[in-house]
Amino acid sequence: MDKGYEKEQFKSLSIKASVAEKFNGFCKEMSLSKSMTLLVMIEFFEENSISPVESIGPNMETLEKRISLLIKKRMNGMIAIMKDIEKNQTKPTVAMLQSLFEQAEPKKKVRMVEKNDPYLEKEVRFREKKYLNNNDDA
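-> structure tokens emitted (138 positions)
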């Protein structure tokens, strides 16, 4: 039942069958009763100063501006919500996880190497012969 219109009487309208079928389909899409669908349509035309028989022209431009302003407001609201979530939930959680992982990591041992080791810096240029006999090639 339509809220606020429960006690009102019904009146009948005569419309063509093809128009009635289209209207019934539209009512199902809107998920409203036929009375409420018709009321919503009339209020829309009155509120936006649109006549169904006239060209939309400049009225459509103002409608587009209203819609774009509404979208911008909603986008700004979404951005504010996302920033708030990032500030109050995401960053503190990440900081806590990082501190836990830093404590859990084993510390790397520093490897001590003597810097003045003569064997590390110089290449070996000559080697002793292992055999004294000249006939052996080794």
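The chain has a mean pLDDT of 79.
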